[in-house]
Design a protein that fits this description.
The structure is a homodimer of 207-residue chains. By secondary structure, chain A is an alpha/beta fold. The first copy, chain A, folds into two domains: 7-76, Arc Repressor Mutant, subunit A (Orthogonal Bundle), CATH 1.10.10; 83-194, Rossmann fold (3-Layer(aba) Sandwich). Helices cover 45% and strands 18% of the residues of chain A. Chain A is built from nine helices and nine strands. The first copy, chain A, has helices at 7-25, 33-40, 44-53, 66-76, 92-98, 101-105, 136-143, 154-166, 193-204; strands spanning 30-31, 64-65, 83-88, 108-115, 124-125, 128-132, 147-150, 171-174, 187-190. In chain A, strands 5-6-4-3-7-8-9 form a seven-stranded mixed sheet, with helices on both faces. In chain A, strands 1-2 form a two-stranded antiparallel sheet. In chain A, helix 1 packs antiparallel against helix 4 (66-76). Chain A is elongated. The interface between A and B is large, with 66 and 64 residues.
Chain lengths: 207, 207
């Protein structure tokens, strides 16, 4: 994976990929930068620059080969290497994330959910089982999983985070709107939905 | 709002803000860039650069004034100008977003949810009412709201999007993993959770 790609470039590539996937399903062989540009309202020069950056060249008047471009993006962004993760918290957000179709398509496999609520434990959502949080250490070890997606309420986030660390989790994708304290060898990625919205407002001057 | 700030800068500023809010609640008066840097695992030079960019200067050995810095970030990122929005789809994701505490703190006010499911219509989640989607035009007009957060299933996303446009919605924050087709005057912001995860994997070389 090219870690030199910026987050914005990665975001655009995943959007191009969404188009390529849909075109591929419809057996459309070629796509021009103009079509991508118009569908996503991204400047055409930017589209061409992004694709040139990943060594894809379009043919004049024909455009890019859909299947090839789709494959290249899969390689560049490492979609084919499936990463297994647990969702911690089987509330609305955890349940929503466990059923988010795009995760699966882009190589993120939610293996199971964990909660402390007896009404939820043992049930299945989106074909994934909800386990008692106290089983995490054992299941993480058996399934060799070290990525957790944290969706608990804010007030218990740090406590649950400490427990995840104890269970051998090394990477935490944190949706709780708080700053987590972890040892140096455990990496936290704070999801920032509101940051995304603020950017939306800034770009289009939404008042 | 400074539209010149990059998405990554905005993301970092919202994270600084989260710390400042917590420190402010605990009546801590000052914070150093070293403390912020260590809590967020962001390079200290980057923290200082970001804060200098928004014209905040720390005092040697004392750091930044928490209340002042908090106010400056609120101004720069326009948190104080409340933006009202509707959530379309009262499923797990819509319900989760309608209760996301950080939205409210950062000036995004979810006014109501809309759905087509009779079992949901009329109910209340997170103190917000769920209306029949066919009431949207009327309610959007009365409440003067033109922002919608789209959380419907993929297969109906375009159809619902067309209806939102018909109802006068001008800004759509799209959580459905598909590309929406809208008129030129309606702006779509595609939320890209998987892009964020891919970036996480890239930065820490998660296999």
């Amino acid at each position: 994976m090219k870690t030199t790609l910026s987050q914005r470039t990665i975001n655009r590539l995943t959007q191009y990929y969404t188009i390529l996937r849909e075109f591929s399903k419809k057996n459309i062989d070629n796509v021009t930068s103009a079509v991508i540009s118009s569908m996503l309202e991204i400047d055409e020069t930017q589209v061409r620059k992004d694709l040139k950056n990943i060594n894809c060249k379009g043919k004049c008047k024909v455009g890019y080969d859909v299947k090839n471009l789709k494959n290249v993006i899969e390689d560049v962004l490492d979609y084919k290497v499936v990463k297994k993760a647990f969702v911690i918290g089987a509330g609305n957000l955890g349940t929503a994330l466990s059923g988010y179709s795009k995760f699966c398509e882009f190589g993120l496999d939610i293996a199971a959910l964990f909660d402390i609520d007896n009404d939820k434990i043992g049930k299945t959502v989106n074909n994934k089982k909800i386990y008692n949080l106290n089983k995490l250490k054992e299941i993480a070890k058996t399934q060799n999983i070290n990525i957790a997606i944290l969706t608990t309420p804010n007030k218990v986030a740090q406590e649950v985070c400490d427990y995840l660390v104890e269970c051998g989790i090394k990477y935490i994708w944190n949706f709780a709107p708080t700053i987590l304290n972890t040892p140096q060898n455990v990496k936290v990625w704070n999801e920032n939905l509101i940051g995304s919205f603020i950017q939306f407002c800034a770009i289009y001057d939404i008042k």
